[in-house]
Amino acid sequence: MNIEKWKSQILRGTLEYCVLLLLRQTPRYGYEILQELNAYPFIASTESTIYPLLRRLEKEGYLYSFWRDSAEGLPPRKYYALTDEGQQYLNVLSKEWNNLSNIISALKGGSP
């Protein structure tokens, strides 16, 4: 049984959704997103996964970015936030996630 392969496939399909959920709350910079995700071992990720995902989502029009000075005197950080189109996309993903969750609950013997 290769549970790590299965987990990898699940993560691949849900990481985008998780990033959008985080950005729904407030704009965040890349390393902050990574730290938030890494608080949950199942969806823990790496910089080599998160930054390309953020760039792709921005290119597709779901995110916009801006630079903000650091309060600690560190170099400015690039923040990401949802666009209106990104919020609409997140709404669709949330609906699909809820549908999938209901199906899995029904298959497990729970109530949908």
UniProtKB/TrEMBL annotation:
InterPro entries, alphabetized: Metal_resp_DNA-bind_regulator, Tscrpt_reg_PadR_N, WH-like_DNA-bd_sf, WH_DNA-bd_sf
Protein name: PadR family transcriptional regulator
Domain Transcription regulator PadR N-terminal residue range list: 19-91
Gene3D superfamilies per the UniProt record, alphabetical: Winged helix-like DNA-binding domain superfamily/Winged helix DNA-binding domain
PANTHER family: PADR-FAMILY TRANSCRIPTIONAL REGULATOR, TRANSCRIPTIONAL REGULATOR RV3488
Pfam family, one: PadR
